[in-house]
Amino acid sequence: MNPELSTCRSLYSSMIDNLSVVANALDSSQQGTARTYLSAALDKPDNCEGAFSEKQTTLVLSKENTNAKQLTAIALALLNM
């Protein structure tokens, strides 16, 4: 696996961990914690894209990054209502 994909794999793994904390926080009515971890998860797709742009290689996860970022942003917006 190339280094950029390895970086993205690690970032998405961390994002999944963050979203797991969000789910548990929401179950416990801890909206502040959920908001914090959603905000952290929101950065992961951009960081993945950054790994590719640093090496000036083609981003193979563009659609996935866009989807992940949009879904996370929607969840954060709903939480902030």
TrEMBL record:
The keyword Transcription regulation does not apply. It comes from the Eukaryota. Residues 5-78 form the Pectinesterase inhibitor domain. Keywords: Disulfide bond, Signal. InterPro entries: Invertase/methylesterase_inhib (IPR035513), Pectinesterase_inhib_dom (IPR006501). GO terms for molecular function: enzyme inhibitor activity. Belongs to the PMEI family. This is Putative invertase inhibitor. It comes from Carex littledalei.
